[in-house]
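name: query_chain
kind: protein
chains: 1
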Amino acid sequence: MRISFPYSEIESLEMPEENLLGIFSPSIVRVEKSEEEIIEEAFSNPIKSHPLPRMLKGGEKVLIVVDDYTRSTPVQKILLVLLKILEGAGVRKSKVQILVALGTHRPMTEEEMVIKFGEDLVKQYNISNHAWWDSSQLIHLGETEKGTPILVNRIVREADFIIGIGQIVPHRVSGFSGGGNIIQPGICGEETTGKTHWLGAQFTGREILGKIQNPVKDEIEQVAMKSGLKWIINTIQDGSGRTVEAVAGDPILAYRKGAERSLQVYQAILPQDADIVIADSHPYDSELWLASKGIYASELAVKQGGVVILISPCPEGVSPSHPEVLEFGYQTYKDAERLLREGKIHKLTAAAHLVHVGRVIKERARGIMVTTGISKEETERLGMRYAQNPQEALEMALSQMGHDAKIAVLQRGGEILPQIASTPKN
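structure:
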């Protein structure tokens, strides 16, 4: 049986059909409405909130926080509706600031801004990247109940009304993206982001990924609300990338309703744990920091002692913003904690990433990577075996697991949420 991948530079592979447990991907949902209609309907029917025109008096300074180049949210279509609503409510263009929520990603380029927002919006509105690396751009707003310091972009203090735009997909750190994530990690400082991510590292992927409410999401929501997030609009896209639903309104309750829908779309039921999991990282393919989402999903599908094969081009390498990943490689929680204690790693965000991947390729399974953007030497420094192509990777995995091994293929591994079918009770 031939298996292909969504990358022109990476070859397909062949495997015996009797080995295949299945090819799994997020659902493709048939909807009759256009994306524009879905978005407008969400604005008109907010969840546990008044519609925006009733909440705005006119004259307010409005901050719109939007996700960045790593997300496929139809931000331009959303903004066209939102900005019209603001104008109708008496909010002048000069009072609107659009801030790109980078988290700890690299800044968006001017070209990426035009692609994301459209040339007209880039010319007409003040759009800027969140400078998470610049402490002078942050303000301290106290702490959460667990003691997480709230360091957030200082623009929030100048705003009268803050609106978040994002998407809801399964997320290793917070269970699902969306809701308060647009603020934390979106526009926070590294110290705040490090605290929530390190909290997430204390749990396995099976304990967090795909959980709508969890301890990490609670911290994120506290940061978001204390920062002044008032209203959100989040989209849910299907396995083709098309928006099939949108939720708007209260940042917590609208998120939860949207996450329930996202769970339905992204979960894929496997009959059993697989000996070998082959996952692409699409649509998170630019660097390994993002492509690791395919590894996170694999944790939910691979048996203890199995093999995970990640297929991803990673044209930007391992992580331009986080050189610690290549310096230290992926780690167990215990070893990463020691490196932090010894002062060898200073950023909790980086340490948490090392653990999130390490829990899969060090503690649960072993990792093999097929990539055109990371060298064999770098791959091995990270703690994974390197294969020149998917066929070679599969042969390596079969030699380890046996030639009767059961194989699961995860498509859109950056978003899919594998679930193992429940064992029937006697």
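note: The longest strand covers residues 302-311.
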